[in-house]
Amino acid sequence: MKRHAPFVFTATMLGVDVAMTCLAFLLAYLLRPRETTPTVVIPPFTYYLGMMGLSVIALIVVFFFYKLYHLRRGTSRLDELYSVASAVSISVIVGMALTTFVYRTEIDYPRVMIVYFWGLALLLVGLGRVVHSTLRSALYQRGWGESRVLIVGAGEAGTMILEKIRVSPQLGYRPVGFLDDTRAGQTVFGLPVLGKTAQLGDIVHEQRINEVIIALPEASHQDLLSVIARCEDGRVSIKVFPDVFQIMAAEVNIGDLNGLPLLTMRDVALRGWRLTAKRIVDVVGSALVLIFISPLLLFLALLVKLDSPGPALYWQERMGLDAKPFPCFKFRSMRVNAEEETGPVWATRDDPRRTRIGAWLRRYSLDELPNFINVFLGHMSLVGPRPERPVFVEQFRQMVPRYMERHQEKAGITGWAQVNGLRGDTSIWERTKYDLYYIEHWSLWFDFKIMILTLLRFLRDPNAI
Questions:
Q1: What Rg do the C-alpha atoms of the chain give, in angstroms?
Q2: With CB atoms 3.0 to 4.6 Å apart as the test, which of 1, 66, 103, 246 could cross-link to 242 if both were Cys?
């Protein structure tokens, strides 16, 4: 049975979608207007069965074209729900068009019933997907539909991928081993290095590998193509851990200049109406948050003031858009003149300069709540790369390639790096990669996704200092 798990998962997902769509249609019928007159009689539910059938067919077809029946491990549930919402909306329109075309004037339905059906389908189909995904993840953890994974490259990138797999058993990945030209025969983080990259094809066959992850971010494109070519079994899924250039070039458009072909490697996302839309979200969002949390801000300010001498609120110079400095507002979490003797020092876990209340504020990121003032004033955005102090920016620009490109967008209260655990005393190289990915792939939905993930994770962040 476990061998056929992918088919079972897909079939049950299809069944859940159909069931939830039918339930949404039934509830929409029950919620429809019920006024009757001598000349108007509300038909029974069976009258609408043909219409419901066309709606179900439309949903299945649209979901198929949206690839929502392709099981992908590791896909964010927020991304899946976003795709489901788009597909459901389109399927409702297609279903109504099919109904009009097939039945013409034979079926008369209240227009408000379609509105109910659309809203209920969004809710119920999305709920069904969440429940199915949760059950599927539980079965993955028990070995159902496991995917045997081979990691090519036992360096830093390879071990990081192994760590991510081990802390995510719900994805159903089973790491079998590494391939590495310099560590063949060794054991890395408890996983054997089964051979060299030249043996990839044989090991894939011998170990019944389902997925190969190539963790060679520094390899040339020619070397990567050579490794991929050794996977002769077309049934093996291949994924590549990218370097910074590959992240930058993820969206390559081909154009021409009067017949001369050109590759567009970057098309700046935040300009024109996009910039206006992001600013509107920032102003509205920060204003609502400041109004809602104003009692909390007053309470925290009082705690800071009573805990230690000095101001409750202070500002620190940070680098923002176009590398221009701005005053970043925060609750004081360290004693006054904490850097008087040492000068600017990077904050660390269990920093001795913290006050008692300051340690608690930093643990739950409450010291950063005044950042919403910066957002409202236009210094920062709700989402973007976290701002650093000028002295550290000068250091990092010498160490990390493309670091200054983080300043092409406004600094943010939260960002893609932060929701992926890269905050506090973590790798600045990895943070920069995530920040550049955000800049290159910006969209309003990406911003909303990061804000939702921030709300879900900020109380559980182990890297808060």
A1: 27
A2: 246
Taking the C-alpha atoms of residue 163 and residue 394, their distance in angstroms, rounded to an integer, is 32
State both tokens at 44: 């029974």
Tokens representing 391 are 């002295």
Among 68-77, 85-94, 249-258, the range of highest mean pLDDT = 85-94
* DSSP label of 389: -
User: How many CB atoms neighbour CB 35 within 10 A?
Assistant: 8
**What three-state secondary structure class fits 154?**
coil
Q: Which domains does the chain have, with CATH numbers?
A: 2-141 (no CATH), 147-241 (3.40.50.20), 273-460 (no CATH)
Let me know how long the chain is. 465
Tokens representing 114? 């379609």
- Give exposure, 180-193, as e/b (b: 16+ Cβ within 10 Å): beebbeeebeebeb
Nearest-10 crossing angle of helices 5-31, 49-65: 140
Give the count of alpha carbons within 13 A of 257, CB side only: 3
Residue type for position 376: F
pLDDT in tens, 272-284: 778 889 999 999 9
First to last CA, the chain: 47
Residue 257 reports pLDDT greater than 50: no
Rounded distance between C-alpha atoms, residue 112 and residue 355, angstroms: 59
**What does residue 111 show for φ and ψ, rounded to 5 degrees?**
-65, -30
